[in-house]
Specification:
globular, about 140 residues, about 15% helix, two-stranded parallel sheet
Length: about 140
Amino acid sequence: TNMRTIIITLLLLAATSAVVAQENSLKVSAFLVYDDGSISTFDVLNDKSVVLWNGINASEPDGQKQSNKVKVVLAGQMKGIKLSIKNGDLKFFEKDNLTVFGTKTFIIDDTGCAEVFVTVTADNKTICQGTIPFHCGE
C-alpha cells in the first residue's frame, strides 16, 4: 500500500503542476486597427513575414488598408504582469501588477513610422519582448 500511496501522490502532484502551468500562461499578440475600424487578420508582433510599410502618397501593399493604430492583446491567465509599450522613442504605456484572466487589450495610437516595442514580464522573467517593425518612406 505504500507504493500505491506514492503513485497516487505523484499523480496528484503532476495534476496540480499541470493546472498551475495552465494558470500561468500568457500569449501576447498585436493587430493593426484599420481606419475603418476593422482589425487585421495577421499578428504584427509575431508574424515577421508581413511587411509594415507606410508611405506618403503610396498605395497600400498587399491589399492592406490604411492604419495608424495597433491593438496589443494579452490572452491567458497570469498575475503580476508588467507591460511596457514604446512607440519609437516615446514610452506609450507602462503598467505594473496587471492580472489577466481571459483577454486584455490595449490600443496604441499614432503608429505607422516608428518601430513599436512590446515587453511583458512577470516574476522577473521575460514573457514577451518583441518589435512591430513599422517602416516609413515616400
